[in-house]
Write a structure and sequence with these properties.
Elements: H1 3-19, H2 40-47, H3 51-58, H4 67-76, H5 81-95, H6 111-119, E1 124-127, E2 133-136, H7 138-144, H8 157-161, H9 166-169, H10 173-190, H11 195-207, H12 209-217, E3 225-232, E4 236-246, E5 254-259, H13 265-278
Antiparallel strand pairs: 1-2, 1-5, 3-4, 4-5
Organism: Streptomyces asoensis
GO molecular function: DNA binding
Protein name: Helix-turn-helix transcriptional regulator
Length: about 280
């Protein structure tokens, strides 16, 4: 097992154990409890593994849990489907021998997708594995504003929402940042050696205490739809639903499309913004 993935696995288990209370899993808390969440021996008992074995996992020692042990731990910790998948990904990465750094090709948007974006009447973005904004439709550009003029290396959704002034345009910014951080964590676990992942996480952790705190929670999510509220300087508040669609080919970039309920005030404001864009 390699050190970095092994440490990630240990930290993920520890953060999940300490968030569970004994009463959440049918245990009596008892008096004089000095630890947050479950004790290691309590979790080991619930999962049907020895306390020593589980302790070595949480210490990042060289243990190789089977699929059955991982599933038992996931059940004992009340994992969601996403958390269970993340646990298995971390364990698989920890079992993989260290390899020489490989060459990664930059994420690119096919010409056909670029043509599609230019014809789309809705705001739409192409977002890379690590939330880099790779391309956008004209109406999405009107929503993003000055962001579209940033250098390519700075066009990242998390970086955008961690900006000090982002609360003014995104009233639910904090919740969105937490969701995006959990999505980033899941992507990093799938390929922990990717240089863009290491660069981005390091940069954001140094720049933002908020991100560093969220990253340390080890939350994971594979969100494919949601809702966004934006205050636009020209048309006012917009409440938009979004859906993410994988692009054809190798796993990576996603097409995110924003829509509003037909006939509602948000759809009218989007049409107004589109009209202002066409009038330029």
């Amino acid at each position: 097992m390699t050190d970095e993935p092994r440490r990630e696995l240990a930290e993920f288990l520890r953060t999940r154990r300490t968030r569970l209370r004994p009463e959440d899993v049918g245990l009596e808390p008892g008096p004089r409890r000095r630890v947050a969440g479950l004790r290691r021996e309590e979790l080991a008992l619930l999962a049907g593994v020895s306390s020593d074995y589980y302790q070595r996992m949480e210490q990042g020692r060289d243990v190789r849990p089977s699929e059955q042990v991982l599933d038992a731990l996931a059940r004992a910790l009340n994992f969601s489907t996403e958390e269970c998948r993340h646990l298995h990904s971390l364990a698989a990465a920890a079992r993989t021998p260290a390899r020489a750094p490989r060459r990664y090709e930059p994420e690119e948007v096919p010409d056909t997708t670029q043509r599609l974006l230019r014809t789309m009447p809705s705001p739409a973005l192409v977002v890379g594995r690590y939330l880099d904004v790779l391309a956008w439709s004209p109406l999405a550009g009107a929503l993003l504003g000055e962001f579209t003029r940033l250098p390519v290396t700075e066009r990242n959704l998390l970086s955008l929402l961690l900006h000090p002034e982002a609360d003014q345009t995104c009233p639910e910014r904090a919740a969105t940042v937490a969701e995006l951080t959990a999505m980033l964590r899941a992507q990093v676990a799938a390929d922990p050696g990717h240089p863009r992942a290491a660069e981005l996480v390091g940069e954001l952790a140094v720049r933002s205490d908020e991100f560093a705190t969220l990253w340390a929670r080890h939350d994971v999510a594979e969100t494919t739809r949601g809702r966004m509220r934006v205050n636009h300087p020209l048309v006012g508040e917009l409440n938009l639903d979004w859906d993410a669609y994988p692009l054809p080919g190798a796993p990576g970039p996603m097409l995110i499309v924003y829509t509003a309920v037909e006939g509602g005030p948000d759809a009218e404001r989007l049409q107004l913004l589109a009209g202002l864009l066409n009038a330029r």
